[in-house]
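Re: the 170-residue chain
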Amino acid sequence: MQSLRFPRMFSAVSLVAGAIAFATVGAQSPQTDAGGHHMVHGKSIVWQAAPPSMPPGAKVAVLHGDPAKEGYFVMRLRAPDGFKVPPHYHPSDENLTVIQGTFMVGTGEKAEPAGMKPLAAGDYMFMPKEMRHYGAMKGETILQVSGMGPFAITYVNPDDDPRNKKSPSQ
């Protein structure tokens, strides 16, 4: 029996959303039963501005857990066409599924547009901790990211980190 092998790009690429220190992003109000089972209906998802660790323009919704704390979490990131996240990495593994749109991803410490690969709605990828990667959205894109927290983002180039940029009023 032949084993399935995927190019390194698909076994080791991801973006975002992970990228987020979500202390300011609250979890949804899911319907929960006595056993801890809960559901979040797509139409009831409340999107909030992404934390300062993400470039401006993205929205996030935490569906389960708290990405800022230890334990399992599930979150979604919604970003507009052309949204980009510079090369970065995370301290924990990341699982990502494209819900809507196209997510262009690449690996490495330098963004190389020619090396990016598209992931479409329904596609999944796994990114091991500390893997350098970057991404861009084609069309409005929604990504679902899950993993073990705490989840954070470290930019390869500190000048790319939005938290290091002064606002126009400063």
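The longest helix spans residues 8-11.
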